[in-house]
From TrEMBL:
Its cofactor is heme. It comes from the Eukaryota. This is Cytochrome. Belongs to the cytochrome P450 family. The chain crosses the membrane at residues 6-25, 227-246. Pfam families: p450. GO terms for molecular function: metal ion binding; monooxygenase activity. Keywords: Heme, Iron, Membrane, Metal-binding, Monooxygenase, Oxidoreductase, Transmembrane, Transmembrane helix.
Amino acid sequence: MIDVITFISILLCSFLTPKIINFWFKKGTQEQAQRLPPGPPRWPIFGNLLQLGQLPHRDLASLCEKYGPLVYIRLGKVDCITTNDPDIIREILLQQWDLTIICRTWTKSLPLGPRTLAAVHLAYNCGDVALAPLGPKWKRMRRICMEHLLTTKRLESFASHRVNEAQHLVKNVWTLAQKGDAINLREVLGTFSMNNVTRMLLGKQYFGSEFAGRDEAMEFMHITHELFWLLGLIYLGDYFPLWRWVDPFGCEKKMRDVEKRVDDFHTKIIEEHRQRNRKQEDNDQTEMDFVDILLSLPGEDGKKAHG
């Protein structure tokens, strides 16, 4: 009799235990889901990745219009929250929320930033001011930009360069108009904008009559186009780690190649500025570009970058 009772007890336990575990697992999952913003249904393995097309920003905007200002989606193994609400975006940027606390409130697996493989390879392991996570390093980089690059005095010091670029713009458009050629406004205005930026940052004009040199200008154009294309690419290896082992389209190899070209380009620019600064003992502050300013600032060890 005891053996029968024991057998029945074991049978009931073996039957009920999985049910109880499954019940509590579902309950915990539902409670966690209640703390997440609403979102579209997800496919197994792929999540919502198949719902993003060639223009993912438009797809994400459509999801926000359908489900609300905050939308939870899952891309492969990565949990994400997206928004298109200007007030929420402004509050995040201005108030500088502690994203770690927010993510722990919603879900432990939410990423703290756009740490994609392209950002790791092409932005020095997410170390630039645009992609670095919130923290002391990012605040220091932002302070350097605000104090040395985006000040009124600094912007006014480049006023003559902007006037010069505007003159080149008008002259170029006038020449094309006299010849009866079509004017590509996107190309003309893009050249104007890029020259203003590169003069302020690098001290060089890469397009126009006074450009740095055809080979260097072409290299700069190719690097810039490939860099932004790869940074905006939806790479499946970011969401499916096994995909990186195959990499059938060679995207990661392309990232490494562009990474080396970017690093070589930056090294060349820095060395040119160092050599120029050695030759010029009295360097006029108004003629310094952003690379000169960075080289003059003390590093983390308290020493200047150019020694």
